[in-house]
Specification:
CATH superfamily of the largest domain: Spore Coat Polysaccharide Biosynthesis Protein SpsA, Chain A
Number of domains: 2
Mean pLDDT: 85
Oligomer: single chain
CATH topology of the largest domain: Spore Coat Polysaccharide Biosynthesis Protein SpsA, Chain A
Strand content: 25-35%
CATH class of the largest domain: Alpha Beta
Strand order of the largest sheet: 11-10-7-12-17-14-18
Largest sheet: 7 strands, mixed
Radius of gyration: 25 Å
Low-confidence stretches: none
Shape: globular
Helix content: 25-40%
Number of helices: 10
CATH architecture of the largest domain: Alpha-Beta Complex
């Protein structure tokens, strides 16, 4: 969260005070609040200087030159969404508002675009599957190396992790593992550090974790290698650590289903509601997880153990699990038509 003390002034303040606040903060903007703390406008350095050039006095009220309809957003906007909004509207500052119009934060485009500091957390990518649903392509190529717009699924995923500050990566491999090693090497070409763990046989999404637990002393990510996403992993990490005593955070995306019939609601034998061809949305597992190292004690060693198995075990024991809503682009590239869609989406700029 930004320090707002030096960018806030009250309605009726003089332009001179607004310029002084802008100089102190270095943020090139002041937020103008009414007595109750609600945002009523903002004035940028450019707004004030243009007013002065028009002959407006420094003793005039900032209300006379401020933008009374600034672009704002609600708290909870992701970094990627904020950047997209600011670029589309040609602005460099974006106030985030609480319900009621009070200011919670001020986002700056330059800060959002700066490379994030590296996180200490590791990311474990599960890349050992055979990709049977993508045959015949996966008979000669491991699924994580299938090309999307000239780059492999795995490289696109690693680039997204790096952009979020996750640069320490472990890749669990099995099917055609030598091809993955040869393509990625030590990861330096992609700006990350890559280590490999080779499964002697498929162990499921979580089954390999006890075998690499010595390197998992901090909360860590587990990510399926067959997803294409713009997920803000840093925001997901911030969510996880902001909650109390979480053992696991599951990335959640919404899956839409179009029902081609009229849906009836019944009470006994009586029809009480009819909705024609409704579209339903269901929260589904996105194949992205943050795990506390404590959960490794619950994963059986050298047994097939999937994410669903872990989820059911944690819930049965009453151990806290949270869902993090992934609002950015997400696609499970599991079938041939998914691969075709991924290439179309990339060509249309949906992953930019």
């Amino acid at each position: 969260m930004s320090d707002l003390a030096h960018v806030v002034i009250r309605t009726g303040a003089r332009l001179r005070a607004a310029l002084e606040a802008i100089t102190r903060s270095g943020k090139q903007v002041v937020l103008v609040l009414e007595a109750g703390g609600r945002l009523v406008g903002l004035a940028t350095d450019g707004d004030i200087r243009k007013a002065i050039l028009r002959g407006v006095s420094l003793d005039a009220a900032v209300d006379d030159v401020m933008n009374r309809r600034p672009v704002v957003a609600e708290v909870g906007l992701s970094r990627a969404e904020a950047i997209a909004l600011m670029r589309s509207r040609g602005i460099r500052q974006l106030p985030l508002l609480q319900p009621g119009g009070t200011v919670a934060d001020l986002l700056l485009l330059d800060t959002l675009l700066a490379p994030p500091p590296a996180l200490r957390n590791r990311a474990v990518i599960m890349a050992g599957g055979e990709g049977r649903r993508l045959r015949p392509l996966t008979e000669t190529m491991p699924k994580p190396l299938l090309s999307i717009g000239g780059r492999s699924l795995l490289e696109l995923l690693i680039e997204r992790l790096r952009q979020s500050g996750l640069v320490d990566i472990v890749i669990a491999i099995h099917h055609k593992s030598e091809m993955i090693r040869e393509r990625l090497g030590d990861g330096s070409r992609l700006g990350v550090r890559v280590e490999y763990f080779e499964e002697s046989r498929p162990l499921g999404t979580m089954g390999a974790l006890p075998l690499i637990r010595d390197g998992l002393t901090e909360p860590f990510f587990v990510v399926n290698a067959d997803i294409l996403t713009k997920c803000d992993f840093r925001a997901m990490w911030d969510f996880h650590r902001g909650e109390t005593n979480l053992a696991m955070t599951v990335g959640v995306t919404l899956h839409q289903v179009d029902i081609p019939y009229g849906e009836l609601t019944l009470e006994g034998a009586r029809v009480v509601r009819c909705e024609e061809k409704p579209r339903k949305e269901y929260p589904v597992n996105a194949g992205i997880y943050v795990l506390d190292p404590s959960v490794l004690d619950l994963v059986p060693r050298d047994e097939y153990f999937d994410a669903t198995d872990l989820l059911e075990l944690l819930l049965a024991r009453g151990i806290p699990v949270a869902g993090y809503r992934i609002r950015e682009y997400w696609l499970d590239v599991g079938r041939l038509h998914d691969l075709e869609k991924a290439n179309r989406d990339l060509a249309e700029g949906l992953l930019d």
